[in-house]
Design brief:
By secondary structure, the protein is of the alpha/beta class. It has two domains: 42 residues, no CATH class; 199 residues, Divalent-metal-dependent TIM barrel enzymes (TIM Barrel), CATH 3.20.20.150. The chain contains eight helices and six strands; from the N terminus they run H-H-H-E-H-E-H-H-E-E-E-H-E-H. The strands form two sheets. A four-stranded parallel beta sheet has the order 1-2-3-6. Strands 4-5 form a two-stranded antiparallel sheet.
């Protein structure tokens, strides 16, 4: 890579991704790489078994509060579902999900079914996983990925990819028509703030552009309207369209 390309990659990984997720980084940090390495050092000696033990401890500890206030905890799968920078992943397969649901069998301990994260793993049958875990799913992220022959993946249209969002909507709408869903990421368009043609888009987080997510929402609304008609459910548009 050229020095410019390497800098852009590091900035994407550390600033745009981790800064967005955790808020631990900003674009004004003078030594983000060292800061990132310091955070990674916190996980030295932590393997999959220890991470699972920590997760079980945390979930068990919060269940009394969840029961008191009737709140659901929704565990999001690892995204992406592969090891990154040497860190183990513990919620990426059907077996992983079954483990944390069985480890803390309380009804308030459930799954955020992120179809995008799960479909990024070629080993996951996303539709069958939806059928299996629908009753323990409290939140749905509708997103889909395409996998290349070498295992790399890219996000696909909400009407494409391997997640089969149409069938997922059938499953979840039948199991629980009130289940909260979101479109998650959307495509980036060229003619909007933050788009790839916008020279002022420094600091923009890919996947969260306005037009891209509205486009995705239109696709998903069409899916849900059709599925609800098939199931005999009255489709209700989101409130901001009323």
């Amino acid at each position: 890579m050229t020095p410019e390309g390497e800098h852009k990659l590091v900035e994407t990984i550390i600033i745009k991704t981790q800064g967005f997720v955790s808020g631990n980084f900003s674009e004004n940090d003078e030594a983000p790489i060292q800061k990132f390495r310091d955070f990674l050092n916190l996980y030295k000696g932590i393997d999959k078994a220890q991470l699972r033990a920590n997760m079980k401890y945390f979930l068990e500890a919060i269940m009394p509060t969840c029961e008191e206030y009737n709140m659901n905890m929704c565990v999001h799968p690892d995204d992406p579902p592969i090891e990154v920078l040497g860190l183990p992943r513990i919620v990426r397969t059907e077996e992983d999900i079954q483990w944390f649901l069985d480890a803390v069998p309380n009804k308030h301990n459930g799954l955020t079914f992120c179809a995008g994260s799960l479909s990024a793993g070629a080993y996951n049958n996303v539709v069958e996983m939806a059928r299996k875990f629908a009753s323990r799913t409290h939140f749905v992220h509708l997103r889909s990925c395409h996998i290349f022959p070498n295992g790399d993946f890219t996000e696909a249209s909400h009407l494409g990819g391997r997640a089969d969002l149409i069938e997922l909507c059938r499953i979840f709408e039948k199991e629980n028509p009130q289940l909260p869903m979101r479109v998650d990421h959307g495509m980036t368009f060229t003619d909007e703030p933050g788009g790839i043609m916008d020279e002022s888009s420094h600091g923009h987080n890919a996947g969260y552009t306005l037009l891209g997510r509205m486009f995705a929402m239109g696709q998903v609304q069409g899916i849900l309207a059709t599925v609800d008609r098939e199931l005999g459910i009255e489709y209700k548009q989101p409130g901001f369209f009323d």
